[in-house]
Design goal:
By secondary structure, this protein is α/β, with parallel strands linked by helices. Helix content is 43%, strand content 25%. The strands form 3 sheets. Strands 3, 4, 5, 6, 9, 10 and 11 form a 7-stranded mixed beta sheet that branches. Strands 1-2 form a two-stranded antiparallel sheet.
């Protein structure tokens, strides 16, 4: 119904509020710009601009048309790019730490797949250390992981606090061992928890070892013990434990994107931008 060229011309006028500047920006003559706007108004059956000796202003219908025009042109450009063969394509092997994948990534990845349908996105979910080893082995193109602060490799998405997490009302008797729920094997949160408790002279015992975050969450929800989480990743049914329990501070953690320098850069840069755009501020 609406001609894309006329929509682009109208947007240029709506943003500059000046026909001469819009014509210069688009490389058109001023009469052509006026003709495009007039034909768009005829197609819409509404006046879109108020023009007088003082300048140009958008009408209420013009404000609405500007919003529709941006949406229509974005879809038009995306379709043109896709069917002319210039749309991004290829394979992107993406790894995400399990707690990050559970809490923040589903919407980002869904939107990415819709925007770049020709990119074959392969998702791996595991602990950060395992993902980093796979990246180094050339098995992944990009990973979204938790790392100790101060690492220079990769792109910092944000710095977070590591905190003790448990059920609301959790108590630990003074002098009693801290009941600790951890991942199996070496992990950043396990090392941090054990190191902090040891340095503080607190005894501890591991009440549950699991290989993934859902196991940690199940054990915490069952009241088996407490766990360490990045502060922004605490599920709504669990709480950050209060300082009154006497647990030691755990310090910061960096949420980081690390890319494989041997992999195709375009898909990596596109997903990196999508994650950074949605990252909590």
């Amino acid at each position: 119904m609406f001609d894309p060229d006329q929509l682009r011309t109208f947007l240029a006028v709506s943003e500059s509020l000046n026909f001469t500047r819009a014509a210069s920006r688009l490389g058109l003559s001023q009469p052509t710009v006026s003709q495009h706007v007039r034909k768009l108004e005829e197609a819409a059956g509404r006046r879109l601009l108020d023009r007088d000796t003082r300048g140009v202003q958008l009408t209420d219908n013009g404000e609405a048309m500007a919003g529709f025009a941006r949406t229509i042109l974005a879809a038009h450009d995306h379709a043109t790019s896709y069917f002319t063969g210039s749309a991004m394509h290829g394979r992107l092997r993406f790894g995400a730490a399990d707690d990050l994948a559970l809490a923040q990534l589903p919407r980002v990845l869904r939107d990415f797949r819709q925007l770049h349908p020709r990119v074959n996105l392969e998702l791996s979910v595991a602990q950060s250390g395992a993902l980093y080893r796979r990246l180094q082995a050339g098995q992944l193109d990009l990973i979204f992981v938790k790392r100790a602060p101060g690492q220079t490799e990769g792109r910092l998405v944000r710095r977070d606090r590591l905190v003790w997490v448990g059920l609301s009302g959790t108590t630990i008797e003074p002098g009693s061992p801290v009941p600790l729920i951890t991942y199996q094997g070496t992990s950043l949160t396990r090392q941090t928890a054990v190191g902090a408790l040891t340095d503080a002279g607190r005894t501890w015992r591991i009440t549950c070892k699991t290989v993934e975050v859902n196991g940690v969450l199940a054990a915490v929800r069952a009241g088996i013990g407490i766990a360490v989480f990045a502060q922004s990743l605490i599920p709504p049914d669990l709480v950050q434990l209060p300082a009154s329990l006497g647990l030691p501070e755990l310090g910061d953690v960096d949420i980081t994107l690390v890319a494989n320098p041997q992999s195709a850069s375009a898909p990596i840069e596109a997903l990196t931008a999508a994650i950074l755009d949605q990252a909590p501020r």
